[in-house]
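User: Can you recover a sequence for this backbone? Please restate the input before giving your answer.

Assistant: Of course. Working from this structure:
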């Protein structure tokens, strides 16, 4: 029996796995996903936390208002209409 987490995403790989199962051959599980380096993750998070604040202090008030207005217009243009 194939477990759901070991099902290949590609249909050709799935077909090959079914043939192997039907003929009694050994079915290799998919390789596990690589773990991320915790140090690299921490550095990325650190930079991500600083980015928005640094951008805000660099932009003048008029430009920040323009960006906010554009975001609101984009948000409201996607609003669902009622019939």
């Amino acid at each position: 029996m194939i477990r759901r987490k070991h099902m290949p995403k590609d249909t050709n790989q799935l077909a090959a796995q079914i043939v192997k199962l039907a003929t009694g051959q050994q079915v290799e599980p998919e390789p596990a996903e690589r773990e991320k380096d915790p140090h690299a993750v921490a550095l990325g998070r650190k930079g991500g936390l600083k980015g928005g604040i640094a951008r805000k202090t660099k932009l003048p008030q008029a430009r920040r208002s323009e960006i906010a207005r554009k975001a609101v217009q984009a948000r409201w243009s996607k609003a669902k209409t009622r019939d």
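That completes the design. The two ends are 49 Å apart (CA to CA).
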